[in-house]
Amino acid sequence: MFMSISIGPIALTVDSLLTIVSVLSLWLLTAFFTRKATYQKFAIDTLFYGLFAGLLTARIAFVIALWEVYQKDLLSAFDIRDGGFNQSIGWFAGMCIVLFRSKKYSQLFSIYIKSAAITAVAVFPFFVLNSMLSNQRTIETINVYNADSTPIELVLNNNKPTVINFWASWCPPCRREMPMLEYAQKNDVNIEYIFVNQGEAPSKVRQFLAKQKIDLKNTYFDFTGSTAKELGAFGLPTTLFFNAGGKLVDSHMGELSEASLQYYLDPLRKKANNSSD
Q1: Tell me: the pLDDT tens digits for 152-178?
Q2: Would you say the C-alpha torsion 222, 226, 229, 231 has a positive or negative sign?
Q3: I want to staple 222 with a disulfide (CB 3.0 to 4.6 A). Which of 103, 105, 227, 242 is the partner?
Q4: Closest Cα partner for 168 from 154, 156, 178?
């Protein structure tokens, strides 16, 4: 199973490659369905404008959210190789441009919908397959950042079951489960808990934790969301469960309760105890 694909000097995650394929498919289908129409050039240009506006807006939104990090090196804000884009805002901005320009031709909106539907049917199963293949694999290390924005590599196969929670302070389910996870971290001495914040500045996270009076150990940052995507965590909160050998054995997307947490941890504890006997 490949989580990334190299094309010459360019390395892409499977998720990024599928996104590119989706955009190309939408463009080609639109060109096909408008091949006999006088507005074909307008239809294709509209997709281009929507894509450009989406990418630009997504980048600007990401840089603003993490200005604390980028202000240390202003030129780094223009270096999109870090993969820093706010995808939800970008998609929204791009669709707004497409819908606004589509009003000029009444038939165009239905063509975009038909092209998008065909693209979804053709490509979405590969997104699902890629996510499924992310499970049941051994992860030796993950790349994250500490509170000083310094990249570090965490080792997972440390002979101790590990729980990784991907979260953000703006996510209501994340906030609700945080006190329970804080309590679990303090009391489950045989389980390693790692908290990876998604796309927020360290100062904002510190303020949130201080305001909520939550004390978390092993708090790290995934500014671009690349680590979460590589591990198949596409929504927040997502919690991943690794055995002592670093093998991803289970995952949970959505809010955890104390009961559901124990449900996932019990098999890890039993296996760890059997291995030590």
Answers
A1: 998 887 788 999 999 999 999 899 999
A2: negative
A3: 227
A4: 178
Q: Rounded to whole angstroms, how far apart are CA atoms 185 and 216?
A: 8
Half-sphere exposure for 276 (CA within 13 Å, toward CB): 11
Which residue has tokens 């559901």? 260
Q: What is the largest CA-CA distance in the chain?
A: 76
Question: CA 214 → CA 8, 22, 153, distances in Å?
Answer: 46, 41, 25
Name residue 144's amino acid: V
pTM over 0.90: no
- CB neighbourhood size of 37 (10 A): 14
Query: DSSP letters of the chain?
Result: --SEEEETTEEEEHHHHHHHHHHHHHHHHHHHHTTTSTTHHHHHHHHHHHHHHHHHHHHHHHHHHTHHHHTTSGGGGG-GGG----HHHHHHHHHHHHHHHHTT-HHHHHHHHHHHHHHHHHHHHHHHHHHHHTSS-B--EEEEE-TTS-EEEEE--SSS-EEEEEE-TT-HHHHHHHHHHHHHHHH-TTSEEEEEEES--HHHHHHHHHHTT---SSEEEETTSHHHHHTT--SSSEEEEE-TTSBEEEEEESPPPHHHHHHHHHHHHHHHHHHH-
Q: How many CA atoms within 13 Å lie on the side-chain side of 90?
A: 15
Amino acid identity at 124: F
Place of tokens 């993490």: 66
Q: How far apart are CA 132 and CA 126, in angstroms?
A: 10
Distance, first Cα to last Cα, the chain:
33
